Amino acid sequence: MAIAKMSVAELEEFLRKEFPQAFTHDDIRIESADGETALLRQRFSERMLRPGGTVSGPTLMGLADFAMYVVLLSAIGPIGLAVTTNLNINFLRKGQPGQDVLAVAKLLKLGKRLAVGEVNLLSGTSPDPIAHVTATYSIPNQ
Asked: What is the pLDDT of residues 72-88, one digit of tens each?
């Protein structure tokens, strides 16, 4: 198991300071992050829904990308300029209105310049993913 370079408290402090547009409204909570995996929860709000009452694609993509960023920072430390270079999402089933969305992120490979991971998105307490995401991040020279 990897040793986390940032605790949940350190991640939250860093993100509130360096990335407030994504992490100041208290709608997303980091439940765990250990250098290999992270669990994030986005509280349900009506803003998440698209016509037809399902959780929107942009909501799911944004949460997945943010979860990947969090798990990466937990592994490499406070390197704010790590950026997404690729994100692929497969929508598997409808996210239920009224339910929080959980993002279960996992690093698959961490190199010097690139990190690859996956994120499963879950609706409420259902164990069945509503979307599966793979993502690659570029890590700047340090």
From this structure: 999 999 999 999 999 99
Three-state secondary structure readout of the chain: CCCCCCCHHHHHHHHHHHCCCCCCCCCEEEEEECCCEEEEEECCCHHHECCCCCECHHHHHHHHHHHHHHHHHHHHCCCCCCEEEEEEEEECCCCCCCCCEEEEEEEEEECCCEEEEEEEEEECCCCCEEEEEEEEEECCCC
Has residue 142 been placed in a domain?
no
The number of distinct structural domains making up the chain is 1
Q: What is the tens place of the pLDDT at every residue in 38-54?
A: 999 999 999 999 998 89
- Please report, for the domain that includes residue 80, its CATH number: 3.10.129.10
4-8, 12-16, 18-22, 121-125: segment of lowest average pLDDT = 18-22
Residue-range definition of the domain harbouring residue 32:
6-136
Rounded to two decimals, the pTM is 0.94
